[in-house]
Amino acid sequence: MGGDPSGRPVGHAGARVDVAERPAWSLGTGGALLAILLAVVCVVTAFVLFGVADDTDTGALGVLGVVVLVVGVLLPTGIAVISPGQTRVVQLFGRYVGTVRRTGLVLTVPLTTRQKVSVRVRNFETNELKVNDADGNPVNIAAIVVWQVADTAKATFAVEDYEDFVHVQSESALRHVAMSHPYDHADDGENSLRGATDVVSAEIAAEVAARVVIAGVEVIEARISNLAYAPEIAQAMLQRQQAGAIIAARERIVEGAVSMVEGALGRLEADGVVTLDDERRAAMVSNLLVVLCGESRATPVVNTGTLYA
Fold first, then answer.
1. Residues of the chain scoring pLDDT < 70
2. Contact between residue 78 and residue 110 where contact means Cβ atoms under 8 Å apart
3. How far is CA 261 from CA 137, 240, 255, 296, 301, in A?
4. From CA 174, how far away is CA 305, in angstroms rounded?
5. What's the CA gap between 160 and 147, in Å, rounded?
6. N or C end of the chain: smaller count of CB under 10 Å?
7. Reduced to 3 states, what is the DSSP secondary structure of residue 123?
């Protein structure tokens, strides 16, 4: 596992953006509709006051009309429409005010800028990476990472681009985990990439989660999507696997053949069908093993003479 990414930067006294998500003041659909109605009323009232002030030369009414008009213009600037799965990170003159997670027609602080941040679940597949496994063999590996934004403030202000940050850190974590395990033929107590896919996937998810927590992102799961030897050694490794399979098959065939020969000889002797000396018993065992273990079909030879002819 990598180190804690929220720790102090190495090599210099760099500064991190220390911010955490908090709710911003907001009203729901009813408050937003009331604000729109109030804005319309303010604008109409302002024009009425301007007309009365022109007829009566009353400066106070003109000033009041300006104030009312400003209120009517400012109120709609706090209105936003937020879809499910979306949030708004609210800033007032560059200062973080809070995050609006309420959906629908929403009224928040006027004169603020609002940045969209999606909290929907996302997934992406890493590039196919070429790494050396724990035994030094080149391996091509890729993974699918499922993630979502948990802290919108960190995702917006702690890193430059949280999506790119997640992609890069995921590939880095995948490379680190792949280098920690052999592709196959693991020792006792050791997990291989091919033989313990679920365990390796859990390690990848934990590694990615530890790296992207600084960006306010949480990882739901990670799965290996592609795993193979690199092309330059794929043929040699295929021959190795085929040799292992052939050896295992031969051992199974020999084990079965010996069992059948033992059964045949025991049955013949138990039933008194024929009595064989050691030389004939050895010849019969040899013939049976050749027939049972041979790859080509045996050609029978009929003995028309005596047993010893």
1. 1-15, 50, 52-59, 62, 186-187, 189, 233-244, 272-278, 280, 292, 294-309
2. yes
3. 44, 31, 10, 19, 19
4. 73
5. 18
6. C
7. strand
